[in-house]
Amino acid sequence: MNKSEKRESGNKKKGIGRKIGKVFGRIGIVILTLVIVLVVTIIGALMVLYYGPSPSARDRFVLTVSETSAGSFLATWFLPKSTIEEIKAANAVVETDDITDVGLINIPGSSTKKGDDPENPVDTTDDPGVVDTIDDTEYDINKIELIDIVGKTYRGKLLIVYNPKRVFIGTPPAYGEDKKGVSTINMVREANALYGINGGGFYDTGSGNGGVPTGRDNSPGIVISGGVLKWGSKRETYEIIGINKDGILVLGKMTGQQALDRGIVEALNFGPYLIVNGEPCVVQGYSESSLNPRSVIGQRADGAMLLLTVDGRQPTSIGASYEDLIEIMMRYGAVNAANLDGGSSTYMVQNAEDKNDPQIITQTASLYGPRRMATAILVARVEDTPED
Predict the structure, then answer these.
(1) 340: closest CA among 283, 269, 292?
(2) Rounded average pLDDT over 84-101
(3) Given this model, what pLDDT does residue 227 score?
(4) Between the CA of residue 139 and those of 105, 135, 142, what are the distances in Å?
(5) How would DSSP label each residue in 89-113?
(6) Which residues make beta-bridge pairs with 145?
(7) Crossing angle for the helix pair 55-66 and 3-51, nearest 10 degrees?
(8) How open is the CA angle 66-217-91, to the nearest 5 degrees?
(9) Can you tell me the distance from the alpha carbon of 249 to that of 300, in angstroms, rounded to the nearest whole number?
(10) Does residue 97 surpass a pLDDT of 90?
């Protein structure tokens, strides 16, 4: 090839290169334009939500995104923190200082000794030391029911565990800032439990590693498992969600020492409480505010535990409000019920009857797969249930 031909060939390659560069440049401009349009659209939509004619739509959006670790920034883009706190306060569950009256729970096949709860003495029989028991001749204490729950904006599953002593708190090997939690499904696997749902909160700045238990809004946490205080203080007051040695769900604000004195052997703290002593708690504000994935623990008068998970942030299940949770729990007979950590932590695990092979049976909203947790609510197999 002579110099003229080489020069011509080089010019052709440069021409092709320039054409390719123009094509990619145009594609880049199109993509950049689409991104700008998308961002402007999102910002415009947020502005309409925040400052448009519907305060209720604004409040529902703020409440919903505020409960997510990944999307909470959407609430703070255009609204001051003070306004967000006002919206939360106006749409909160009214707190109660009531503590569970254990005398309202009568577990078939068991007797609660008078004096187990010093602040709630009970005596409903001729024997001054023993509470009446339900006739359990037709009662299968080992029964478990799994029910599909469907509402206007949600789908979920409700587990009814007839023997409350099968329910216990799952924990990782250790807690601390340098420790890591364990996912609910792995807690089920490691305990060879039959079922499990997520439990209380954990310190979370985005992804969270489950090493430090917390209550609501990253408040200090407490964990009691197997009668042992594994995290928290005996002197500090918590929103206790506990189970005493008789299998009774105990809700109430108390110190760690008071919880132990009441015979609570399994506990974490979270909230809000939804039903206390048969009375539904009052929800302020809009009835459909804050639709999110939810988890709840409750108990019927016959002692059966209710474990509820509601899917959310899905095309077929947006999520549930606190009022939805109260309605579900009341419908299924809960005397006491409390909200657990929700959002992307929410899902239910079911293990096989004949082997240790747990599977997630609801839809998780987490983008990263099952999250590391500080606690889980587990259901033991019949053969592993503690004896009276």
Answers:
(1) 269
(2) 78
(3) 96
(4) 16, 8, 9
(5) HHTSBPP------GGG---TT--PB
(6) 160
(7) 120
(8) 55
(9) 9
(10) no
Mean pLDDT in the chain? Answer: 81
Specify the DSSP element, H or E, that contains 270: none
Model pLDDT, residue 365: 85
Q: Say how far residue 162 (Cα) sits from the centre of its chain.
A: 22
Q: Could you report the per-residue pLDDT of 126-161, keeping only the tens digit for each? A: 343 333 444 445 678 999 999 999 999 999 999 999
Q: How far is CA 66 from the centre of its chain?
A: 15
Distance of CA 233 to the CA centre of its chain: 23
Q: Which of 181, 230, 164, 108 is nearest to 379 (CA)?
A: 164
What sign does the dihedral 230-176-250-133 (CA atoms) show? negative
pTM above 0.85, yes or no: no
Of 226, 210, 317, 211, nearest to 265 (Cα)? 226
191: tokens are 């305990």
Residue type for 157, please? K
Q: Which helix (H) or strand (E) holds 33?
A: helix 3-51
What is the C-alpha to C-alpha distance for residues 185 and 198, in angstroms, rounded to an integer? 9
Q: How far apart are CA 20 and CA 342, in angstroms?
A: 50
Which of helix, strand or coil describes residue 153? coil
Query: Is residue 202 a contact partner of residue 374, using CB atoms and an 8 Å limit?
Result: yes
- Whether 182 has a pLDDT exceeding 60, the answer reads yes
- Token readout for 51 is 């400052």
Q: What percent of the chain has pLDDT above 90?
A: 55
For residue 130, the model assigns a pLDDT of 36
Lowest mean pLDDT among 34-43, 188-197, 301-310: 34-43
Residues with Cβ < 8 Å from 46, sequence gap 6 or more?
Answer: 74, 77, 78
Tell me the CA distances in angstroms from 280 to 95, 130, 147, 164, 322, one per residue in order.
11, 29, 22, 21, 11
Tens digits of per-residue pLDDT, 57-79?
A: 666 666 666 666 555 656 665 66
Which amino acid is present at 57? A
Report helix, strand or coil for 330. helix
Q: What are phi and psi of 93, to 5 degrees?
A: -80, 130
Q: 169, 357 in Cβ contact below 8 A?
A: no
Burial class (CB in 10 A: 0-12, 13-18, 19+), 190: middle
* Coil/strand/helix, residue 168: strand
